[in-house]
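Q: I'm a student working through a structural biology exercise. My instructor gave each of us a protein and asked us to get a predicted structure, then write a short paragraph describing it. Mine is Metallophosphoesterase. I'm not confident about reading structure output yet, so if you can add a plain explanation after the tokens, that would really help. Here is the sequence I was given:
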Amino acid sequence: MILLRITLFFLILLLLPDWYIYKFYIKHSTKKWKRRIWWMPSIGLLLALLVFIFFRHSLQHAFSMYLIIALCIAVPKMVFMVCDTILYLCKKTAQCLFRTSAPLPLVRLYSLAKICLPLFASLATCAYIVFGAIFGKEFFQVKEVTFTSADVPQAFDGYRILQLSDLHTGSWTDKGKALQRAVALSNAQHPDVIVFTGDLVNSRADELKPFMHILSRLQAKDGIYSVLGNHDYGTYVHWDTETDRLANVDTLISREKQMGWDMLMNEHRILHRGNDSIALIGVENSGNPPFPNQGNLPKAQKGTEDMFKILLSHDPTHWRREVLPRTNIQLMLAGHTHDMQVNLFGFSFSKFVYPEHRGMYLENGRGLYVNIGLGFVMFPMRLGAWPEITVITLKTKK
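A: Happy to help. First, here is the predicted structure for Metallophosphoesterase. I'll explain a few features afterward.
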């Protein structure tokens, strides 16, 4: 289903602006060669997309570059179409208002805008995409969020939780320089506790080895806790046997422990402040097919019934599937979506896949925060959906 949605998205992104520009600018050209070659780039990109769909497991690196090239070609044309349409509507509105021909200065202004605005907006968009590909994946942002609840114990008023998610260490090729900055930035927030909500690797535990000495420098008063994400189960690569895959998961968990991280496998920990305490619950990945669904929330929260509870669960769909209807957990922290790593002017297509795809969501005083991740996967860029370090401060509702 997700693959179908992505394919439909690219069909619209590639063909709609091409059709618009062809109809209004190319179709009536006296030069036949323009009309003949206009559709060739988009047709070539669509044919390449079909190849990547059928051979996606063996062409992942090439697909990464394909996505960047496709965005650099298609998105500026889409922006051109939108700007040109807005100008046309402005012209029609002006004609209705003046009923006769518009004043000459307005006509000249429209003519200038008709030439410059769509072209400038398209070029600026292309530059923005290039920035996302070169610098965006390291453009770390610290998000400050407050969660207020009457259930927060008084001693935990002002408690600072630093959330990281979706590091995908297998995607980093700069020998850890960027992650060093991310770790330093995280420690500079002076958190009380650090939580990691899954997808530490792309598939293999060995991807973590070059970065263990860096990630082990993360510091928090009450420790560092983590859960598994869908990629951590190693289901996106071929294994000779199921035993090999399970051994890979065990190795990943072992290496996290070597870094000083406490992996929560359908279990919980109690955090204390004076005479007060809260429960930190962690489950294995609980997702809709085709993602793994190995979370056992009843087991994980057993013994925390009368406490303020924070749940670490990688997939945000878990919130509406089980957390809201079957528990009284006050706050869940998730990742997984990446906001599809592209958010153009506040809009992301991830909203059509995940109802809760980034930021804080509240329902009847209970909260879900979706961290859009610190790393990247599939294609090496972030655009608008900048890599995120979240600091969530608990507040007692007076």
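A: Here are two points you could use in your paragraph. Residues 60-98 form the longest helix (39 residues). The chain is about 40% helix and 15% strand. It's a good idea to check both against the output above yourself.
Q: Great, thank you!
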